Structures are given as C-alpha cells and as structure tokens.
C-alpha cells in the first residue's frame, strides 16, 4: 500500500487532489479540521474511484494536534510510511492592511505557513530514511505577485514559496522532491463570493480554473515522472502573467 496525506482534503482543491492520487493507486489520509461531513464525502468519492482512505482530523496550525494524530497513525502502521504529502490546507481573510485585525494576520499565516512546518517536519524523517518522498505545497498567484487586500495571504504563500525552495535544497540528495503549485482563480468555496464576470476579463483563457485541473498538476508532481523537478513553483492560472 502506498500512502498519501492531503491536508484540507474535505473540499475544493484538496478533495480533487485526493481523488487524483486515489486514481493513481494511493491510499488517502484525508485531513480535515471543521468539515466532517465534507470529509466523509471525500472518502466516499475516493472509494468510488477504486481506492481507499481514512479521515485524519487535526488543525494544521496546532502542533500538538498534528503530532497526536500522526503519532497515532504511525503507531498503528509501524512498517509503513507516507510517501506523498500535499500541504493544501489554507484560508483567506482579506482586508486592506490598514483595517486588518491582528487575528486575521496571524490565523492566515498560522494555517498556511506554520501548518506546513508542523506537518512536513513530522513526516520528513521517514521520507529521508526511506529515500523517497514527494512534498507538494499549494501556494497562490497572490504569493508570487502580491495582491491588494491580501497582505496576510500573500505573506503566507510567499513564505511558503521560499520554504519550498530551501527545503528542496536540503532534501534533494535523499530523493525527496519539494515543489509548489500556484493556482490563480479556481472555482471553490474560497472564490465563490468573488466577482467572477469582472475578474475573468483579466484571465487570458477567459475563465476560472477547476480544482481538477490543479489536481492533475499535483498528480504529475507526485509521480515518478517528475523525479527531476524540485524547488519549483509552477503556476496554473489560465495565463495571467506573473
Ligand atoms: P476551500 O474550498 O475553502 O478549502 C479549504 C480546505 O482547507 C478545507 O478542506 C478546510 O477544511 C481546510 N482547512 C482550513 N483550515 C484548516 C486547518 N486549520 N487545518 C486543517 N485544514 C484546514 O479552499 P480551496 O480553494 O480548495 O483552497 C485550497 C488551497 O488552495 C488553499 O491553500 C488555498 O489558499 C489555495 N488556493 C486556492 C485558490 C482558489 O482560487 N480557490 C487559488 C490559489 C490558491 P475544513 O473545512 O475541514 O476545516
């Protein structure tokens, strides 16, 4: 059995990635925090595509919860390890910086950036020992370009991009690749309140992307075919120049 952990897999891009990896033969550890019913739905869909999985509840920003959940799983699977990690969990709390409550600055960074640290550090040891691993971080156009109203989100994703490059340099010799995928506007709950009609005028292909399109790219980066790609940030944004 090959294992993959997707954080924030209860819906949106995380769900689509779970299904893609399930199609590729992975058993999926479906992390969620608040949306139990949605996570169960992801598990049902994983089974429908012919694989299997289980739910793993933890808040990625809480190091104790992460450790406890992964300790429990590891104890129950002594001879196995998780070879693919997709750090997808993320939130946005948009506001002009002048109005931004400190809590909205901190929570966005805690989930995207500290969450990456908590989960990845735990899982890295086994990948290094086994000399194979795939770490894929879901970042954003906002972390490359910087978007107004998103200083917190841009900082979190920009930090994650830098961490991707640094970690790739550390673990490359052990056959562990670390890459970032930077979506533009993708149809999910996160973008459902955006003025799609207006925004799609600035997208060369003239539409928002789908979670499945992002998942295809993640599937490729997780595959053996992508062995020589590491430390990269790959945009998937319909042609918006970054
Ligand atoms: P979404 O539909 O809102 O899903 C967000 C996911 O993150 C949910 O599964 C949620 O799970 C999980 N999550 C949130 N806080 C968490 C926490 N503390 N611990 C564990 N899981 C947590 O958003 P999405 O659009 O699919 O976004 C997925 C990723 O893509 C995010 O990192 C986002 O920044 C990035 N992204 C999205 C777009 C876009 O246009 N949609 C563009 C660029 C980048 P629960 O509900 O169970 O808490």
Q: Which bin fits the share of residues in helices? A: 40-55%
User: How would you characterize the largest beta sheet?
Assistant: 7 strands, parallel
Strand order of the largest sheet: 3-2-1-4-5-6-7
Order of helices and strands: EHEHEHEHEHHEHHE
The total of helices stands at: 8
Cα(first) to Cα(last) distance is 39 Å
The distinct bound ligands, ions and cofactors come out as: NADP nicotinamide-adenine-dinucleotide phosphate
Query: How large, in whole angstroms, is the Cα Rg?
Result: 17 Å
Strand content: 15-25%
Class of secondary structure makeup: alpha/beta
Count of individual beta strands: 7
Unreliable residue stretches: none
How would you classify the quaternary structure? single chain
The overall pLDDT average reads: 98
Overall outline: globular
Write a concise keyword list for the protein shown above:
7-stranded parallel beta sheet, 45% helix, alpha/beta, 7 strands, 242 residues, binds NADP nicotinamide-adenine-dinucleotide phosphate
Task: Explain how this protein is built.
This protein has 242 residues and is an alpha/beta fold. The protein is 45% helix and 17% strand. Helix 1 (12-23) links the parallel strand 1 (2-6) and strand 2. Helix 1 crosses helix 8, helix 3 (63-76) runs parallel beside helix 4 and helix 4 (102-130) runs parallel beside helix 6 (151-171). NADP nicotinamide-adenine-dinucleotide phosphate binds at residues 7-8, 10-14, 31-35, 59-61, 88-91, 111, 138, 140, 183, 185-186, 188-191.
């Amino acid at each position: 059995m090959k294992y993959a952990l997707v954080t924030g897999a209860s819906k949106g891009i995380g769900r689509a990635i779970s299904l893609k990896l399930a199609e590729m033969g992975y058993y999926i550890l479906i992390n969620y925090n608040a949306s139990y019913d949605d996570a169960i739905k992801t598990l049902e869909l994983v089974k429908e595509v012919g694989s299997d999985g289980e739910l793993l509840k933890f808040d990625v920003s809480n190091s104790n919860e992460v450790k406890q959940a992964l300790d429990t799983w590891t104890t129950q699977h002594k001879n196995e390890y998780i070879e693919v990690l997709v750090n997808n969990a993320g939130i946005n709390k948009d506001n002009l910086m002048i109005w931004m409550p400190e809590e909205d600055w901190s929570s966005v960074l805690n989930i995207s950036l500290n969450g990456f640290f908590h989960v990845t550090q735990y899982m890295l040891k086994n990948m290094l020992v086994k000399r194979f691993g795939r770490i894929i971080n879901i970042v954003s156009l906002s972390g490359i370009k910087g978007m107004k109203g998103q200083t917190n989100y841009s900082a979190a994703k920009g930090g994650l991009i830098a961490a991707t490059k640094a970690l790739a340099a550390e673990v490359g010799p052990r056959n562990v690749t670390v890459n970032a995928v930077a979506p533009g506007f993708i149809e999910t709950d996160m973008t459902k309140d955006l003025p799609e009609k207006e925004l799609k005028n600035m997208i060369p292909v003239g539409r928002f992307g789908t979670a499945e399109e992002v998942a295809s790219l993640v599937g490729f980066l997780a595959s053996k075919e992508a062995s020589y790609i590491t430390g990269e940030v790959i945009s998937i944004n319909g042609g918006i120049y970054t």
